[in-house]
Amino acid sequence: MPAFDLPPAELERHRPDIGEPADFDAFWETTLKEASAEGDPLVSSRPVENGLRLTETWDVTFRGFAGDPVRAWFSLPRRPGSTAGTAEGMPAVVEYAGYGRGRGLPHERLTWVNAGYAHLLMDNRGQGDQYGCGGDTPDPHAAAPGGPGPAVRGLLAPRDYHYRRLITDAVRAVAAVRALPGVDPSRVVAVGNSQGGGLALAVAGLVPDLAAALVTAPLLCGIPRALDLADTGPYGEITAYLSVHRGAEEAARRTLSYVEGVSFARRAHAPAHFGVGLRDTVCPPSGAYAAFNRYADLTGAEPAKELHAYPFNGHEGGDAVHVRRQLDWLHSLLES
């Protein structure tokens, strides 16, 4: 697939007006306040056998949106001679999974724990059936009008939308990991690709004391343009829905404006590391550039940030090459 978005020189200065709703901040302040009122984030943490000798894992449940139980895997590197769960003061990576994927099995995602970080992998509520090894978190609030896919559940009203719930879960996951043993609460990092990248970016905009955000091929960035360009994946689900419900466009665009990644990016404080494939037809690269170029616009902060573009790659971006860049960057950031 040839490059189909803006030329690289235009991407580098792409700073679109995203039509942010006037009550964006109030909407999220109220949403997160309601979630916090449900009680302490951490519900339970139970050690599990993972078949690994160098990693120990816990099955974690925390309170997400509306106090709903959200599942996660929490893993720590097992150090020679240590007793299970005794590591102290370790930086933590909270990882968010891609669209349609659940948390899977505890031995699937080992990069961050092998790099020496505590690792929390959040389950995606109401997802997990498209690829991977499944999920364990239902979405009990999915009855609002909309299509069957997560991207269109509750699309006609901001308070009903699936991503209002999932983003709230993502923020609460940070609070949960800070309550777990072995974690330095001042060094918590949000990481994700695709949908997970969109969630990591939202967390960067909603959690002011996050240590860093690593965002790759983010969904929910530059949404208006993405709907014009992409006809596969989550954006394709939205356009397919609107092709049937021809009078719903205005309501849908209003709802989507409350989960726009560029709006979250403008409110971020944390150092940020971005990755993007310039031939990405699932999450068009102009969205990632828009978020990167407007990152920290409203905060007065000047955090360290960098973006790595892969001209001949699509949604896979830099793949393992980019992960190595993430590892080097994060080690340098947290150990300096």
UniProtKB/TrEMBL annotation:
Keywords for the protein's UniProt record, in alphabetical order: Hydrolase
Protein name: Cephalosporin-C deacetylase
Domain Acetyl xylan esterase: 1-332
Organism of derivation: Streptomyces griseomycini
GO biological process: polysaccharide metabolic process
Catalytic site positions: S194, D280, H315
Binding site for substrate: Y99
InterPro entries linked to this entry: AB_hydrolase_fold, AXE1_dom, CE7
Annotated GO MF terms: cephalosporin-C deacetylase activity
A Pfam family of this chain: AXE1
EC number annotated for this UniProt entry: 3.1.1.41
